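Protocol step 4 of 5: obtain the predicted structure for the target chain.
Materials: sequence only (see below). No template structures provided, no constraints applied. The aim of this step is simply to have a reference model before the mutagenesis design in step 5. Sequence pasted as it appears in the construct record:
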Amino acid sequence: MLGHFSQNLWKTNHIKIARFYSAVTVNDKLRVLFFGTDSFAKTHLQALITEKGRQGSCIESIDVVCPPDRRTGRKLEKLTPSETKGVAESNNLKVYHTPPQAKSLQGWHVPNDTAYDLGVVVSFGFFIPPDIISTLKNGAVNVHPSLLPKYRGAAPIQHAIMYGDAETGVTIQELDDREFDAGRILAQEHVSLRQEPPLYSSLKEKLSHIGSSLLVDTIRHLHRRKQDAKIQNLSMATKAPKIKKEWSELDFATMSAWQAEQMHRAIGEQYPLRTVFGKESKQSVVQLLHLELPSHPATALKGCAPGSFVWDEQSQSLHVLFWDGSVVACTRLKMQNKGAVSAGDFVNGYGARGQFGVSSDLDNTIIGKNIKKRARMHRYGAV
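Step 4 output (C-alpha cells):
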C-alpha cells in the first residue's frame, strides 16, 4: 500500500525544505535524466523504459548518467560497462559518463543542452550537487531501500538484516541538494520481513521490483506527491554507512551463533565471514561461505572451547561452538589461496575436529568496534 502524506502533520521548525519542487501539470511528458549504476538501478531503469513505451506515458525521453567502463578480469584486460549502461545502449538511450576516477561531481555538467524536466537517482554513488539539480525543472527524485528517515546511507538493506528488523521498505524522496537521504518523502511502501530470514541478495532484488513500481507511480502522479510530501523527522534519523570488511571477522569468545548467522545473511555475500585455522605461526584465513543455525547442535562440542568445530554427519556440516554454548553449522568453506570446498572435503583434508580462532594480527580497536556493533543487534524473530 502506497503511503501518501500530508505536510501539515509535521512541525516545520528546525526542518529545511528542499528547494526544487515546481508543479507538474497532468499533461506534461517528462524528459528524464537517470543517474544509476548497479543491478538495483538497472531494474528501475527498465521500469522507466517500459513506462516510456506505454500508450499515454508520462515520460517523453530518458538519458542516462553512469560511471565509465571499468577494467575487470585477472589482468584487468577487459572493459566492463555498468549494468545501467548495458540496458541504456540496448534501448538506444543516450549515455553520459561521469569523469574517470572522479570522487565527486563538483564542477561537472551533463554535456548537452537538453532541458530535462526530472532527475531520477537510484544507487548512483555520487552526491548530486546543487548546480546540477537546479537545471532540472522539477528537481530530482531518489529511490532509497529503507523506510526513511531510518537507515540513511549506502547500506540500508544490510543494516536492516544485520539488526534483525521485522520490516523494511522503499522510500521515494526528493533529492536534497545539501545532504544524502534528507529530502521530503513522496511515497513509501512497507515490506514485512517476518516470513523468513532475509538474505541480502534476495531482499535487494525484491525491493528493487517494489521500488520500480513505486517510482513509476510517483512520476505518474508527481504533482500530487509533491503537494502531499512529508518532511523527514530528523529526531528519527539513523545511519547505515558503507559495509566494512572488518565487520566480517568472527570472534567466538564474544559473539553468539545467531549473530554470526545474521551477519552472514547481511554481508556474507560481499564479505564472507572470516576466521583463522592452524598454529599461530602458520595461521590460514578461512572464509565460512554458508552458515545456518542447526536444529540439533552436535553434543560432542559440550565442554569445548569457543571456536571448536566438529563434523556433524547428519547435517553434512561443520558445527562450530561459541562462548555461550550456541552453535552454527557451516556447509561450505574457503581456505586462504585455495578454492571453495564443501565441509566434507574440508574434513577429509584437515580432520573431523579442530579449532578456529581470531587472527593474531587483528587490531584490538577493530575487535572493540565489532563488539559495540554486535551489541546493537537484535535476534531475528525476537522483535
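Step 4 remarks: The chain has a mean pLDDT of 91. The radius of gyration is 24 Å.
Proceed to step 5.
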